[in-house]
Amino acid sequence: MKNSRLRLLSYIVIAYMLLAFAWWSILLFTKNKDAFQAKRELMDLRIASEIQFNGPNTALYQLLIEEERELESKYQVQEWMILGEALVFIVILIVGIYLIDRGYRKEVESARQRRNFLLSITHELKSPIASIQLILETFLKRDLNRSAVTKFSENALKETKRLYNLVNNLLLSAKLEEAYQLNMEEVDISLLVNDLISELEEKHPNATFQVNETADFPNIDGDLYGLTSVFLNLLENAIKYSKNDAHIEVNLFEQEENLYVDIADRGIGIPDKEKKMVFQKFYRVGSEDTRSTKGTGLGLYIVDQIIKAHRGSIKILDNQPQGTIMRIQLPLSILHHQGAAAFKRQVPA
Ligand code: ADP
């Protein structure tokens, strides 16, 4: 509200400046013309009297004609100068309006994302805490049999895991802002992905996974903690943004000194215009379909930063007939010891 009033005020000031400048330009133009005409009339009088008294063949007559021509060309130069300056001023003003508008839009968007983030984080923290509290209260109040205790404890553990993952994402994204050090070691991506899938299969019994990998899929040098977060975020998103029973296909293959991991779902998909934006911190696609899902908008930001730190890239492709494919490319030749330095260089402070 305050911002939009400020923007309106700046537009009024700019419009006033434009009008004032246009008025001064017209005034300058007419005054210049008047001055020129007065000078020319005087000159014409002098020429007429020279012709009358001495005839048109005198040196003074030639001089006066020459002076009149000079006067005219000077006047024309001045006219162009006024026009040029007016144009430069208008261009500067238009650029100014554009910059104000762009800055304002960015500010509004980042405020919207921060508000979104705060709302979702509050919700994300509150609901597992409330569930755990309820379970503990039930334990205290009631004498439960063994199987009920196991069931409740499993639920509490699930919620604790959810909290743990959320706090992990928060910590990681805070660290990424500072100087996160890659801890390079040999990582078996295939093993990592398969382990995560087994974990997720337990947590989401309705989701099905299919892993295809080429024989001799090689290991890479990478940061296990970071890469775990990458694949966990991507797999959880694939489940979360599939409407009913998620079917997720993971393809691991090697091509031209690079490892590729495709995580394909058949979910709601990501519109083309959002494909770049989803990597921004706190960004969530604003349709109702996604709004009903839980999230903080941190996952893909973390994924993108960590993949870049490994000198890799992530691409969002459309799956057929529907859904998303997250394609991760990781170079095989990340040298040991280069990791930390490369990371600092690539992640903006
Ligand atoms: P979060 O899932 O916490 O909202 P992310 O950073 O992981 O945040 O994702 C950002 C946004 O990208 C999500 O809000 C969602 O709109 C979109 N998105 C991410 N992964 C998928 C996917 N597999 N299918 C459809 N949309 C996705």
Structural features, described:
It is elongated and about 130 Å long. The strands form two sheets. It has a five-stranded mixed sheet with strand order 2-4-5-7-6, with helices on one face. A two-stranded antiparallel ribbon has the order 1-3. The protein contains eight helices and seven strands. The model is unreliable at 335-349 (pLDDT under 50). Helix 3 (146-177) packs across helix 7 (299-309). It has helices at residues 2-54, 59-141, 146-177, 189-203, 224-240, 288-291, 299-309, 339-346; strands at residues 184-187, 208-213, 220-223, 247-255, 258-264, 313-318, 324-331. The protein is α+β, with helices and mostly antiparallel strands. It starts with a helix and ends with a helix. Bound molecules: adenosine-5'-diphosphate. Residues 233, 237-238, 241, 265, 267-270, 278, 283-285, 290, 295-301, 324 line the site of adenosine-5'-diphosphate (ADP).
